[in-house]
Design brief:
Helix content: over 70%
Strand content: under 5%
Number of strands: 0
Number of helices: 9
Largest sheet: none
Radius of gyration: 21 Å
Distance between the termini: 34 Å
């Protein structure tokens, strides 16, 4: 198992070296880049909005329920909701969710191209298929994912605001005051930096599994599953390392 993992990592590194080369035609690259940003990034906006709204609302409700002590100020609900969203949910948890959507999409699309011999046809024409197919996906998703991260932060806080506005659990004044209290701008940048790393892991690992598929449609499905599982594990590992490096 160890030998197999080392061999896979080596092949992944060689694959990335093949991917990140100068495109033969920049015009074609930018056309595909815009397409991938739309497909992988813009199409993920509804999912991010819905999940972030509900998670922000749930966090607020749980904080209100579990901070009933008179020793804890009422504005701590907004403060805790903000910290949870900025530090962990909008970067790490949202990336795990996107690994299921974006990662499986990339792996299945490239894997289908492999089993239907479309990649072989591109190679026969003398084109670097890894660069032509994979690089726009990785660059496009990494470029757009900060937008999804910031949007998730905003919508999560908005979800908490809905709870304060339309229920009597916490007043709007206390919630807003909690959001504004002891704000650390670095936490926003910290979340964005983590999301950039996670986006690269999601797109590159999914592309790797899809590119080296062998077999038929069954193997494409297995590659898609393996891509999601592997990228999720790597995201959690990277989360621990980045948290230690960026917040020490």
């Amino acid at each position: 198992m160890i030998v197999s993992s080392i061999a896979s990592f080596g092949r992944y590194c060689l694959f990335m070296g093949q991917v990140f080369r100068k495109p033969e035609k920049w015009k074609v690259f930018f056309q595909r880049l815009v397409l991938e940003i739309s497909k992988l990034g813009v199409d993920s906006i509804p999912l991010v909005i819905i999940i972030s709204l509900f998670i922000g609302a749930v966090i607020t409700i749980q904080m209100v329920i579990n901070t009933v002590s008179p020793l804890i100020p009422s504005y701590s609900t907004g403060l805790a909701t903000r910290e949870i969203l900025l530090l962990e949910f909008s970067s790490s948890i949202m990336s795990l969710i996107l690994a299921g959507k974006v990662g499986s999409n990339i792996a299945s699309e490239i894997g289908t191209m492999r089993v239907t011999e479309q990649i072989d046809a591109i190679d026969i024409m003398g084109i670097n298929s890894a660069n032509f197919i994979v690089m726009p996906k990785i660059v496009g998703f990494v470029l757009f994912v900060p937008v999804l991260c910031v949007l998730s932060m905003f919508m999560g806080l908005l979800g908490g605001w809905f709870i304060s506005e339309f229920t009597s659990m916490i007043s709007v004044e206390n919630y807003v005051f909690g959001i504004q209290s002891f704000f650390n701008e670095w936490y926003v940048w910290y979340g964005i930096i983590k999301t950039l790393v996670f986006a690269f892991i999601i797109s590159s690992v999914a592309a790797y599994y899809g590119y080296f598929v062998k077999g038929g449609s069954l193997e494409v499905g297995q590659a898609s599953t393996n891509a999601v599982v592997s990228s999720s594990i790597l995201i959690l590992l990277a989360d621990v390392i980045l948290t230690k490096v960026l917040l020490q």
